[in-house]
């Protein structure tokens, strides 16, 4: 276990230090018609149609919101195909052949500083809604809903912790685009009329601290603090990030906005900068491909809709003869893929490719490791039993499954190798 932990940390350090490779000219791009939050969608284009960069080509429909679907390239629509989404499910995608001309839609126009200074909160709501900005740390929660809050916001917290092992997408984003981060923060402070902002990073990343503090010199009038927080998992959990970053404890079930706090992932704040400054959606993002099953672990800057298979080939292909385990997202909270025919969506941070090492699941020995490690104070084994017994009442009330953040700590610490997080995931669906 110690050797494996060191191997993971060495891989993480390797990709942290690697400059980002620009892979922004794929021959084809793909756009999901549905996702985990929107179980239905409408397609606005047909085969043969010509589309432009940032043009709306469809609309996803959620329970209380809608998400426009935008093309990240200009080119010709080829039709609907099925590929794997970041949630591990096979879904329909709109396929577009890239003409590599990158002709933008007419609405993509740069706003002047004077125009931006006159934007109201309502303008921020409409812009982020039209540009389909969502939580890019993986939550995919619509950003415009955050701007709709009526609660007074005192502090903007930028979550730049990136606490899961292996991933370095946000790390490289900060190192390479600090100006965009500060401009996005400036816009967020303006929208909420907030007094300050705090950027939370892990204390061991001295390069991030130096980069952000140096870049801040260009914004002397912006009240922003770069805060070093803990080096543990799940430090990136919103509740934990707020507590470590500004000392406010958010009770379970209470929105941070009720306490005067608004949280954005660091990639989301860059997306906000692009939406407000240029009136365009997220067209590219940083993406990490790594693990002991890939030949050359790498960081990429890719267009939304890029095929994962192309990045695997670009990274030298698979390493070793063992069967591969593919995890879209972090190793703790990501989703397993049954094959590599997947697509990079705007909320994809990474793909971890590991050589398979099978573990034998054994009976629970009641050691309590899962309980001690749970950041939400839950009882994972009792949740597992309730799922097996189909006891929905216990899940909703006694076991408080809604508080589970699916962090994966229970599975990680289980001495019997029981997939407790999978039971928690099923329990959350049962308790709806």
Number of alpha- plus pi-helical segments: 15
How many domains, in number, for the residues? 4
Given the C-alpha coordinates, what overall shape results? globular
Q: How many runs of DSSP E, i.e. beta strands?
A: 17
Major sheet characteristics:
6 strands, mixed
* Cα radius of gyration in angstroms: 21 Å
Side by side, the strands of the main sheet go 1-14-13-17-15-16
As a percent range, the share of strand residues is: 15-25%
Q: How far apart are the termini?
A: 37 Å
Q: Which stretches of 5+ consecutive residues score pLDDT under 50?
A: 1-6
Averaged pLDDT: 94
CATH structural fold name of the largest domain = Rossmann fold
Bin the helical content. 25-40%
Task: Describe the model.
- The protein has 432 residues and is an alpha/beta fold.
- It folds into 4 domains: 2-22 and 284-355, Roll (Ubiquitin-like (UB roll)), CATH 3.10.20; 28-98, Beta Barrel (OB fold (Dihydrolipoamide Acetyltransferase, E2P)); 113-278, NADH-ubiquinone oxidoreductase 51kDa subunit (Rossmann fold, 3-Layer(aba) Sandwich); 369-430, no CATH class.
- 31% of the residues lie in helices and 22% in strands.
- It is built from 15 helices and 17 strands.
- The strands form 4 sheets. Strands 1-14-13-17-15-16 form a 6-stranded mixed beta sheet, with helices on both faces. Strands 2-8-7-4 form a 4-stranded antiparallel beta sheet, with no helix packed on it.
- The longest helix has 16 residues, at 2-17.
- The protein starts with a helix and ends with a helix.
């Amino acid at each position: 276990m110690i050797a494996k932990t060191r191997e993971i940390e060495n891989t993480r350090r390797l990709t942290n230090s690697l400059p980002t490779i620009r892979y922004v000219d794929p021959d084809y791009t793909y756009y999901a018609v549905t996702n985990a939050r929107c179980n239905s969608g409408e397609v606005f284009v047909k085969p043969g149609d010509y589309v432009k960069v940032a043009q709306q080509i469809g609309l996803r429909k959620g329970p209380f919101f809608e998400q426009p679907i935008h093309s990240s390239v200009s080119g010709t629509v080829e039709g609907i195909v099925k590929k794997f989404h970041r949630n591990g499910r096979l879904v329909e995608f709109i396929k577009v052949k890239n003409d590599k001309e990158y002709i933008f839609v007419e609405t993509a126009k740069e706003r002047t500083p004077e125009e931006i200074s006159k934007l109201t909160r309502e303008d921020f709501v409409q812009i982020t809604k039209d540009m389909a900005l969502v939580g890019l740390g993986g939550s995919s929660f619509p950003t415009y809903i955050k701007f709709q809050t009526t609660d007074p916001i005192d502090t903007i917290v930028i979550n730049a912790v990136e606490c899961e092992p292996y991933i370095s997408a946000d790390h490289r984003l900060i190192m390479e685009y600090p100006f965009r981060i500060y401009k996005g923060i400036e816009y967020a402070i303006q929208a909420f009329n907030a007094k300050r902002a705090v950027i939370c990073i892990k204390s061991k990343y001295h390069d991030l601290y130096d980069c952000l503090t140096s870049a801040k010199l260009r914004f002397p009038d912006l009240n922003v603090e770069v805060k070093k927080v803990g080096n543990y998992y799940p430090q990136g959990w919103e509740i934990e990030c707020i507590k470590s970053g500004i000392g406010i404890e958010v009770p379970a079930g209470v929105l941070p906005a009720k306490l005067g706090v608004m949280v954005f992932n660091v990639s989301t704040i860059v997306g906000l900068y692009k939406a407000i400054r240029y009136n365009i959606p997220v067209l590219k993002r940083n993406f990490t491909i790594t693990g002991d099953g890939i030949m050359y672990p790498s960081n990429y800057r890719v267009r939304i809709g890029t095929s994962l298979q192309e990045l695997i080939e670009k990274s030298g292909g698979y390493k070793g003869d063992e069967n591969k385990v593919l995890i879209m997202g972090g190793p703790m909270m990501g989703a397993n893929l049954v094959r590599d025919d997947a697509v990079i969506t705007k909320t994809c941070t990474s793909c971890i490719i590991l050589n398979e090492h099978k573990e034998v699941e054994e009976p629970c020995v009641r050691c309590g490791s899962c309980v001690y490690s749970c950041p939400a104070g839950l009882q994972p084994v009792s949740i597992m039993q309730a799922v097996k017994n189909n006891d929905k009442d216990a899940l909703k009330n006694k076991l408080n499954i809604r508080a589970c953040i699916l962090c994966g700590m229970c599975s990680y610490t289980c001495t019997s190798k029981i997939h407790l997080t999978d039971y928690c995931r099923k329990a959350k669906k049962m308790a709806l």
